[in-house]
Every structure is written in structure tokens, then in C-alpha cells.
Amino acid sequence: MPHIKVYIHFVWSTKCREPFLDTPELRNKMWNHIKKNAKEKGIHVDFINGYKDHCHCLVSLGSNQTLSKIMGLIKGESSHWINECVFQKPLFQWQEEYYAVSVSQSMLNKVREYIKNQETHHSHKSFDEEENELIEKYGFVKYSGV
């Protein structure tokens, strides 16, 4: 059995950055649902949180998992779930693009803390500002197709 320790920090937004996830209660429902559903699909979500218009998710990759496969499963199913169970109007969608960056073992706690503090972080910084910071500071690369 392979021993793999590869962590990826994913960030993705709602379609057109609409603030669909506008209450802490709704966000908690979404994050809990994503974590539960991911576990059922063999995806290890280490930490998840976000804000009104985006999600941060720290995932430990399995040996047969790819970035696009994980994002397809997480984003597709969670969009379907929220539209079926929470009755979002207009239709809830995630944006196709996402960011993904590997995280070293030594930085895991720092990334977890960053993800944990999204509410505070976004009380004074927009997602656009955060996106530019992630690109400049960490060299995040935007992927699309999911």
C-alpha cells in the first residue's frame, strides 16, 4: 500500500461571485455537506471553510485522485445538493475555475488557521483582493474545466 502525503489547498468561487452563501448557518451547512459527501467518495477533506462567495478546502490526495476529479466531485455534487435541499433561487452554481496549490507538511497548521479565519479575514478584504494576493504571494495557478 502506498504511503502518500500530498496536501492541496483548493479555492473556488460561486458563479459570477454571487454571495449565495450569505449566512453563517448556510455556509456551515454547505461545508459540513461537502466534508460528509467527500468522505463517502474517498476524498479526505482535512479542513474547509469560506465566505459568502467562495470556498477554501484543504485536501489530502489519495493515490488515484486528480485535482480535476476531486473538484468535479465536490463542486458538482454540492451544487446539486444545495439546489435540491436548500432551494436556492436563482440556481446556485460554482464557477468553473479554481485555484490549487500544494502545501508542505510544515505549513499545514498555518493553512488550516488561514482557512479557519475566513470570516474575520473577509471583514476587511474582498475575494478579489484575496485572489490577487494568492496569485502574487503564493503563485496560485487558476485551473478551469470543472
TrEMBL record:
Pfam families: Y1_Tnp. Residues 3-118 form the Transposase IS200-like domain. This is IS200/IS605 family transposase. It comes from Marinifilum breve. InterPro entries: Transposase_17, Transposase_17_sf. PANTHER family: TRANSPOSASE FOR INSERTION SEQUENCE ELEMENT IS200. It comes from the Bacteria. GO terms for biological process: DNA transposition. Gene3D superfamilies: Transposase IS200-like. GO terms for molecular function: DNA binding; transposase activity. SUPFAM superfamilies: Transposase IS200-like. The lineage of its organism: Bacteria, Pseudomonadati, Bacteroidota, Bacteroidia, Marinilabiliales.
